[in-house]
Structures are given as C-alpha cells and as structure tokens.
Amino acid sequence: MLTSLVRLVSSRRARRTVAAAVCAPVLLGAGLAAGQVAGAWTEFQGGPSKTGVATDGPVPGYRRAWSTPFDPGGPGDRFGLSAPVIAGDVAVAVGPDAVIGVDLGSGEQTFAVDRAVGPSVPAAVAPLGDGTAVVYTEGWGEGPPPAPGSEVSPTASVSPATTADGAGDGPVDSDLAAFDLGSQERLWPPVPLDGVSRTGVTVDEGSAFVGVNGGSVISVDLADGSVEWRRELDAMLVTPITVIDATVLVGLQGDGDTQPVVVALEAGTGEERWRHEPSARSSVVSAISADQGSAFAIFAGLSETSVVALDLADGTQRWSRRVNATFDVIAPPVVGAETVFVTDLIGHTRALDAGTGQQRWDFAQNAPVFRSVPVLVGAHLLVPTLEGELAAIDAETGELVWRLQADGAPIRSVAASGDVLVTVRGADRSGLEGFEHDPGATLVREASPTTLAAGRMVGAIAIAAIPLLVVVLLLGRMLVTRMGPAFPGDDEQVSEDGEQVVDPWEAEDPTP
C-alpha cells in the first residue's frame, strides 16, 4: 500500500486525490441549547472537540447484541455507512443516498430519510427547541466516482440551490440539510455549498460548521439555516472540523508546492487567528483533537510522521513527537485527561503524555487500521481494524485486556453511549452492529510484543532454569562418580608426567 501511495503523490493533482481518499473517511437561535445532546455521542469522535472520548459506555468484554445489515450504495454499490452518531436511544448513520436511524436496544431500523447521492460522511445531532436536529451534507459535486469498469462518466448528482427564503438559483455541488429526529421533517431549505463536502458536520453553540473540498468553511445558524459566514482558505479540506473555546480548527492538506497546515478561525466571525505549518516536510494532516488549551494533530510525510501539540491561544508549538518514519498515521489522535493516543496503519498504538509528548507505553496490535478510528471508552482504548478485530487496551498500563477475533469484515468506527457500543461494518457484513457487556467474557493481561517485561521475563527464565540446573547437577555428580573430576582445581591440575601445572590465567602478570 505504501508503494501505491508514493506513486500517487508524484503529481499535484494526485496528491489532492490521495488527501481526499485517505483523510476523509478517518478523519467526521432561539430556544437552542448547547451543541451537544447530553450523554450522547453527537458527532464524529464524540463532540465538537473531536477527542474520541466516551465517558459513558460498557466495559470489556463484549458480546454482539444485534446486527442490522445495510446494502452498500452509490456507484458500483461500493459505498457503505458513515461513522454513527447517537441521540437518545437512536443511532444515526449516513449512507450514499439515505440517512438511517437504528434503535439502540433492538437494532431495528426506525427511519430512512432520502438524500442526494454523496459521500457517506458523519452527521451531527443537536437539541433544537423541543426536538433534536439531525444535520448532514448531501450531493457529490460534478458527480460520484464511476463504478469499476465503467466507460461512461456518471451524471452529476446535484440538488437545486435554494436560499433561506426558498428561491432557487440553479444547480449546486452540495448542500447542508437538516431534519427533525422525531418526525423526519425538513427543518429549513437546504443550504447550498460551493463544492462537494467530505468533512462531515460539527455543531457547537447553535451553529453548524462544514467544509468543502476546495477549502471553504461555512458557519450556519441551526435555528433557521441562514449562513453566518464563509471563509475561503484555498487548499484541500477533507477532514472533520474541530470547535473548542470559540475557536474553529481546520486541517488543510498539502500538495506538490505547499505544506499541510492547521488554521484557527474565530467561531463567531470566521476571521483567521493563527496558522501552524510543520517544520518537517509533510503531505497530509490528520483531523484535529483539542482539550485543555491544546490542539493535537498528526503531520505525516514520506520520511517522517509526528504528533504535535499546539497552544490554542496563538498556535505556538508546545511539543512535537516523532512516532514513525513513514506516511502511515491517518486516524486522528484520541485525547484523554492526561494522555494522547496515536494509532498507525499497522495497529501500533502509542500513549503520549499530553503535557510533554513523552511516550508512556506502546502496544503493537499488528493488524491494519486503515480507515478505522480508535476511541477511548472509560478506562479502555478500543481499536477496530480492517480485518474485523476489536481490541480493548488498558489506557493506564497499555496491556490488552480483551479482543474480538477478526472475521474479515472491517470495523470502521465505534460509537459509545450507555450500555451499548455501535460499530460500522464493511464488506459482506455491511451495516451496523451493537455490542453490550458480556459478564461471562474472559479477560486477559497481554503485554505488547514490542514491550520487554523485565520482571516477568526474569521470572520466566528462572522457572525454566531451575529444572535445567537440577539436571546439570545430577549429571555432574554422575560424571564425577564415573570418570573423576572434569576440571580439577589449580592444586589438582597435573601434567601427564605427574607434575603440577599452573593455570596461565591464574599466574602472576610477568609484565612490570
């Protein structure tokens, strides 16, 4: 896979293609309350700060509670569901041509709302008046990618451009739309965007934030769908937008001429506050996670990959930690209270001190996590894989405590709320699955194969050495009885003619 990536990034246009294809999937008024539904996983990686932390969820081990199939759609029927979000007792996921809702208790599909065919990127849910709004994007720009083997370019999938007052003014690439969770009725006319969107939706303090591929960031009032501001950043934007402390954080991808950068905008106006460019040559930047006055991002290139911590106030770099030497960390960082967790494409997870960047532990899962995103549920980091494995790692010690064996169907994303984990499956298991705590599950304490457990190793060596020593001693006594001393002492060493021989290693040094 790395070889194909190297070939792809050889041109400016191809670099943009790689950024869109690789980063996007991994990377989700009056009477209006704050942007999150209390106790729920309201958008990609939990909430607007994108920390990937669920304070409420079942503990390992797990058992499958339900499975809800969803046939892939889009060109060639090869596009599945987005990362799920949770509102109350409903999991919401976006498919190529519909937004679906699934009951958390039973797994029964409760609704499907049609959308113009577009990328399957996460929605967001937020309280609005007496109800809950589901906010999502739709439309595929100049047209979705053609199906494999197709010789004809697909027809552009567009929605009629409609302004806030309901007047249309021609076709557009993509829209921001919203409906009421309970009734599935549209809340306001779709808001036209100026390009296809792959960022998913971020909601904070009554505003929805969304980006488009070309680099525009749009803020929309959730109460009536009016556009609050637009900001043109003129670079590839495909990863989720992060909002914290009235600051909008955007990751812009690089190309043959430019570096990727992190840009901070004022949430109320869209004015730029600061931007950060990596010191080492990079090609892509991950989605950004933010907490406790810092923003965390991963800059990846062909020769070096580093995690950086930036001061939210002015963008100055607090620390940088090199985590690998190749272009292979795509999933966004997961940020706990004092620890930043980073997982690369081969399932190698590192826990870094959030204040200093020093490594606390690492665990090598040795399973591909491409387009799979880890989450922290309580005291355990859950790492899904491309092969269908789900590992639960103790966040404090770095030990594996439970593992769902791989079954070949990718697990793309995990959402947690209450007593249920919701996962998105791909391949022949395409759809959503719910997991609950299994009181009969067997837990383990497995150290990483990359970690030298000195105490445990010494103990194992000692246990193995004891019977060996016993055998050696017994054989030695038998040999002494049968053959005499094998290595007599200095005073017993004699030559063949009976004279005493001095051990040369015991003789005095003849040199002055």
Short description:
The chain contains 3 helices and 36 strands.
Any descriptors?
512 residues, mainly beta, Methylamine Dehydrogenase, Chain H, 2 domains, 5-stranded mixed sheet, 5-stranded antiparallel sheet, 3 helices, 36 strands, 10% helix, disordered N terminus, disordered C terminus
Ends distance: 66 Å
Helix content: 10-25%
State the strand order across the main sheet: 1-30-31-32-33
The gyration radius over C-alpha positions equals 29 Å
CATH superfamily of the largest domain: YVTN repeat-like/Quinoprotein amine dehydrogenase
Largest sheet: 5 strands, mixed
What number of structural domains do the residues give?
A: 2
Shape: globular
Look up the CATH topology of the largest domain: Methylamine Dehydrogenase, Chain H
DSSP summary: helix tally: 3
Number of strands: 36
Task: Just give the CATH class of the largest domain.
Answer: Mainly Beta
Query: What's the architecture of the largest domain, going by CATH?
Result: 7 Propeller
Low-pLDDT ranges: 1-39, 152-172, 452-512
What is the average per-residue confidence, as pLDDT, rounded to a whole number?
80
Strand portion, in percent?
Answer: 35-45%
Computed structural class = mainly beta
